[in-house]
Amino acid sequence: MNKQSDNELLVMFRNNDTKHYAFNLLVRKYQERLYWHVRKIVISHDDADDVIQNTFIKVWNALESFREDSQLYTWLYRIATNEALTFLKKKRTKFLLPLVDVEQTLSRTLESDPFFDGDETQLKLQKAILKLPEKQRIVFNMKYFEEMKYEEISEILGTSIGALKASYHHAVKKIEKFLEED
């Protein structure tokens, strides 16, 4: 796959002769991971594609001024997460939907999604995750599915490690409760 380190990609990006090539490599390196991260937030394949496209447009426009205060991939995740949350907020506002209706809409989207190939247990887990508040859902997905460290999640979400651990703990308890009820 992509053998260049993030630092090498940044150096290449800052060189006008290799800028476009470096960006294409960066997209190839992170597109799938970011897609699945966003997909767990917005659920719909088409919506996730739109959010990822917007994410990479923002990355293209901001990469020149990336200060390297954080790791490149956590910076990319932060942009993708913010884009996904902004997308959901616009969707709620556009349709004047309360949070509960958005959760039900996402749940119905998941059930009818031709790209979802999980079994009944997986569907049940995904529905339980959708019942979580947005922040807990994102923290749970990053920790459980993407196996990120709390330090990385903290960098992406701008939240303390202690608060993230609490969010994850509450999310796990709520999911367990939901799964026991059914």
Automatic annotation (TrEMBL):
- Extract the InterPro entries matched here: RNA_pol_sigma-70-like (IPR039425), RNA_pol_sigma-70_dom (IPR014284), RNA_pol_sigma70_ECF_CS (IPR000838), RNA_pol_sigma70_r2 (IPR007627), RNA_pol_sigma70_r4_t2 (IPR013249), RNA_pol_sigma_r2 (IPR013325), RNA_pol_sigma_r3/r4-like (IPR013324), WH-like_DNA-bd_sf (IPR036388)
Residue intervals of the RNA polymerase sigma-70 region domain: 26-92
Is Membrane a UniProt keyword of this protein? no
> Mind listing the GO biological process terms from this record?
DNA-templated transcription initiation
Q: Does Translocase show up as a keyword for this record?
A: no
Report the GO molecular function annotations. DNA binding; sigma factor activity
CDD domains named in the record: Sigma70_r4
Name of the protein described by the UniProt record = RNA polymerase sigma factor
Its source organism is Tenuifilum thalassicum
